[in-house]
Write a structure and sequence with these properties.
Blueprint: H1 18-45, H2 47-61, H3 68-71, H4 76-89
């Protein structure tokens, strides 16, 4: 059964007990982890599009008509690392 919401008055000085700080930290960490998981899943799905978005200007500047996927086939280990980096960096400015 759910606990009823606490109807405490807010402290005008913004003070909170330690338990409230820990509860807020737990909630923020849970939201951040959820964002990382979601963005990592999206990055895995759109992996080639993301890589081509970042490498296409460089390849065009040197006169290479091919995409990054055609120029260099990445092993799965590097692909997983790139997907993880995308998953960690994309939601970083999110609150």
């Amino acid at each position: 059964m759910l606990k009823p919401a606490r109807n405490k008055e807010k402290d005008p000085e913004g003070r909170m007990p330690l338990a409230e700080h820990l509860r807020e930290l737990r909630n923020r960490l849970a939201k951040a982890m959820l964002a990382i998981v979601v963005v990592t899943a999206v990055a895995a799905f759109y992996y080639n599009d993301i890589i081509n978005f970042f490498t296409k200007p460089v390849l065009e500047s040197v006169g290479c008509p091919k995409t990054f996927a055609e120029v260099a086939k990445m092993p799965e280990g590097k692909q997983c690392a790139q997907i993880t980096i995308n998953g960690l960096l994309a939601p970083s400015p999110w609150r």
